[in-house]
Amino acid sequence: MSESENKDLLEALNSVKTVEVGDVVKGEILAFDDQKQVIVGIEGTGVEGVVPARELTSGVDEGAYKVGDELDLVVISKIGSDKEGGSFLLSQRRLAARKVWDDIEKKFEAGETIKAPVTQVVKGGLVVDAGVRGFIPASMVSDHFVEDLNQYKGQELELKIVELEPSENRLILSHKEIVQQEREANKKAVLDKLVVGDVVEGKVARLTNFGAFIDLGGVDGLVHVSEISFERVGKPSDVLKVGQDVKVKVLAVDPEKDRISLSIKQTLPQPWDNITEKVAEGDVLEGTVKRLTSFGAFVEVFPGVEGLIHISQISHKHIATPNEVLASGEKVKVKVLNVNAEEHRLALSIKALQEKPAAEKKQEAPVEEEKVEIPEEDTGFTMADLVGDELKDQD
Description:
By secondary structure, the protein is an alpha+beta fold. The chain has helices at 3-15, 93-110, 176-193, 275-278, 358-362, 376-379, 383-387; strands spanning 24-32, 38-42, 48-51, 70-79, 87-91, 113-122, 125-129, 133-137, 156-165, 170-174, 199-207, 211-215, 220-224, 245-254, 259-263, 284-292, 296-302, 305-310, 331-340, 345-349.
């Protein structure tokens, strides 16, 4: 053998690479065996390797592979001994997973999020496909308790990487932080554009004994029970349902405390609107006694519309206080004595619907007006309204 031939042989021998478990190699597809395993020649080694069907990223029957293709593979283990001309067990799937883990680890270190579809709902949380199997504990799915996790199946979620351990195939993810960030962003956007006096649409989110919380699209506002309706509401749940769409008027906005005060009733027609079309002097109505005072009784004759029955208009008999003959919540029939639409006042009478006693019919002398000292701002009625017209019932 010449010197040049020896040199060529040494160079050829030196160029042959050794193969170790964990190495990343290139393999050229040589054939497919009966078990649909791929036989490859490992580049630069002169040895062959086997890729089991389960270690491929695609199925052989799908036509994804053909003889002559080159695959990037990772060495899993050695098969047989050197004397037996041993080969190697290789994997395409595990190399792809390794690359995914590397990418996820880089994003974790950079504080970035990932997106992955939910593939399975299991006890305690959700399984996602992030290129590798990831798990979202139930407590990290949202910022509130979710009773039915099945609603997330098939959804692609943005996720924060909480914990990863590639050697154990452990990847813990959280959607809760993303939900919280989105909620804060939405809240700020809503608060920035809300103006007192605006009428906006929302959805009933929660009901309590004192009111209803309305979701305005990222932030909740409160409708106090007194602002739900012009009619008296005992419990918000009597007239509203969770999920119901409602229109609300913005009463107040406090960005520092994240508080928004709303009203439903102020989006509705006002009770006193067109009152003269509903009632006129001389009409007889049925109403409900709402409040009793020392000078008379306030009776609701339409939702949100109250009139005053002065004590002198309650009975032909002398009474010291209205509660001698009336009770709060009692239904009564009343006659309308006067309608003042501009000042939202109705003067009412029960006595005008009752027959006068015989003795009173004989005595036609004028009755002296009572003097009642009640501040006008406390009642909304003038002194003349409170005293009443004693002579009306003699017509």
